Amino acid sequence: MFGTHYRLERRSIRFVLAIVFVASIGGLFEIAPLFTIDETVEVDPDMRVYTPLEIAGRNIYIREGCYACHTQMIRTLRDEVERYGHYSLAVESQYDHPMLWGSKRTGPDIARLGGKYSDDWHVAHLDNPRDVVPESVMPAYRWLLRNELRTDDLGGQLLALRRVGVPYSDEMIANAPADARAQANADDPGAEDVAARYGEATNIRAFDGDAGRLTEMDALVAYLQILGRLSDAAGKQAAAGEVAQ
User: Fold this and answer.
1) Minimal CA–CA distance to 197: which of 176, 218, 211?
2) Using an 8 Å Cβ cutoff, are 53 and 43 in contact?
3) Based on C-alpha coordinates, what's the Rg of the chain?
4) Which residue has the higher pLDDT, 46 or 214?
5) Domain range summary for the chain, segments of one domain joined by +
6) Bridge-partner residues for 148, per DSSP?
7) CATH class of 52-243
8) Which Pfam families match (predicted)?
9) Between residues 28 and 83, which one has the greater pLDDT?
C-alpha cells in the first residue's frame, strides 16, 4: 500500500489523474440525481406566493437571526413527525430565497407554525418570551412594536424574486406597498384587492392589534402565521397515505 502511494507521489501526472478520477466518482453521485429532480420533487399548482407583508416579515426574521435557533425543516424521523407534523416537502420551499431550513434547534422547528397560536400569543412571545414560555431562553424583540415598517422598497423586492422564478405579476409588484398596508388593516379599501391577488385564504387583519399603525411586528407575525400554509401538498400526501393504509 505504501509502495503504491510512494510511486504515485513520484509520478505527479499519474497522481493528478488519480485524484481527478476519485473526485469524479463523488461528483457523479452528487450530480446524477439532478437529472431526475423533476420526477422526485412534488408539484402543487395551487401553491401561493408570499404577500408583500409576509416577505417583509421574512426579511425581519432573517435580519434578527431567528433562523439560527429555529429550523424550518421537519425530518422523516418518527419523533419529529409526531411532534411537528408531516415531514417537510421540497415544493413547500420552492419560493424561498434564501432557504431557511436551518441546522440547529435551540427552539422548536417552526415549519408548520402557521395558525398554531393566536396573533396575541405571537406578539406577547416576541415582546417578552418569558410571559408565555417561562423557561424560554429567547431574547425579547420589543422594538418590533415600536418600529414602523418600511414599505417603499417592497415592489423592488418582489421584482427581484420574480427574476429568480417566483411568479409575481406586474400588478402585484406595482401594488406591493399598498398591499402590505392593506393586509394589516381589514378596514382598508385595498383589503379586497389583497385577497383577490393572493387568494381568499390570505390572512388580513391587524396582526399587532393596532390597525392604525403598520409595524415590524405586523410583518413578522404575518410571516409566522403563514408558515406551512402556502401549500397543502403535505396534507394531500398524508391523506393519500391514510387511504392507502
Assistant:
1) 176
2) no
3) 23
4) 214
5) 1-35, 52-243
6) 215
7) mainly alpha
8) FixO
9) 83
